[in-house]
Design brief:
α3 packs across α6 and α5 packs across α6. It contains six helices and two strands. The chain is extended. The protein is mainly α. The protein has a domain of 118 residues: Cytochrome c-like domain (Cytochrome Bc1 Complex, Chain D, domain 2). The protein has a two-stranded antiparallel sheet. The termini are far apart. Bound molecules: heme C (HEC). The site of heme C has 20 residues, from α4 and α5. Heme C binds next to α4 and α5.
């Protein structure tokens, strides 16, 4: 009796092993599940600087004003001036090389497509990814218009979002001149990396570190 039970159990185990290993050979670690194309689409929302990846859609500032007032102005102000300590979205031209630079989407961001990407991905704060594609184009158009970058009736779309000329588009240094970044311009160094480091200043000297 025991012999039969043992034989039965070992046969089942053997069959299980065969099944698992055949399946596992296709899915090496047998972890999680394979994402469906629809699930991948949900994550694949990045929009590149040249507009590649921008979803088909459009909108202008005239239509954007209303929805901006409804879902953004509570934090960022009716005119992008920022309520309390929420970030400003408008203004700051010609301040980047001053002692108090005001970095906004208008003064600082190099690409309109990044505004699209960020807003669609992350805003409104606490309700991210609740905007439709067209609502996002409308809102980006409205913010660009408040920053005097496009006219209010300009129709922003997936076709032109990569071509909008932002005021600070040439303000970023490429290739990145920071010494440690050099390492990434070729084959990344993975061991015994000799990156020269020179400390040129300390936060304490410019008095930004709180005493306590
Ligand atoms: C509840 C408050 C709130 C609401 C509503 C809100 N935001 Fe924001 N927003 C924030 C906060 C907080 C940040 C900074 C987030 C961070 O730095 O991680 C931010 C950052 C941003 C930035 C980046 C600013 C910069 O220069 O770094 C943009 C652009 C922006 N929001 C646009 C929008 C738009 C458009 C809407 C409406 C669809 C919206 N936000 C709604 C709170 C809010």
């Amino acid at each position: 009796m025991f012999g039969l039970a043992k034989l039965f159990i070992s046969t089942v185990c053997f069959l299980l092993c065969v099944c698992v290993s055949t399946y596992a050979s296709e899915r090496q670690f047998y972890l999680g599940k394979i994402a469906t194309p629809e699930e991948v689409l949900g994550w694949d929302i990045d929009v590149r600087p040249d507009g590649l990846g921008a979803p088909v859609g459009s909108g202008n500032a005239i239509n954007g004003e209303e929805i901006y007032a409804e879902v953004c102005a509570g934090c960022h102000g009716d005119f992008g001036e920022g309520m309390d300590r929420w970030p400003e979205l408008v203004g700051g031209e010609d301040t980047l090389d001053t002692h108090d630079p005001l970095k906004t989407t208008g003064s600082y961001w190099p690409y309109a497509s990044t505004m699209y990407d960020y807003i669609y991905r992350a805003m409104p704060f606490g309700m991210s990814q609740s905007l439709t594609v067209d609502e996002t184009y409308q809102i980006v158009a409205f913010i660009l218009n408040m920053n005097d970058i496009i006219d209010e009736d300009f129709v922003l779309s997936n076709k032109n979002i990569g071509k909008i000329e932002m005021p600070n588009r040439d303000g970023f240094l490429l290739p990145d001149p920071r010494p440690d970044i050099d390492v990434f311009s070729g084959t990344p160094c993975m061991s015994d990396c000799d990156v020269p480091i020179t400390i040129i200043g300390k936060a304490r000297d410019i008095d930004v570190t709180p005493e306590d």
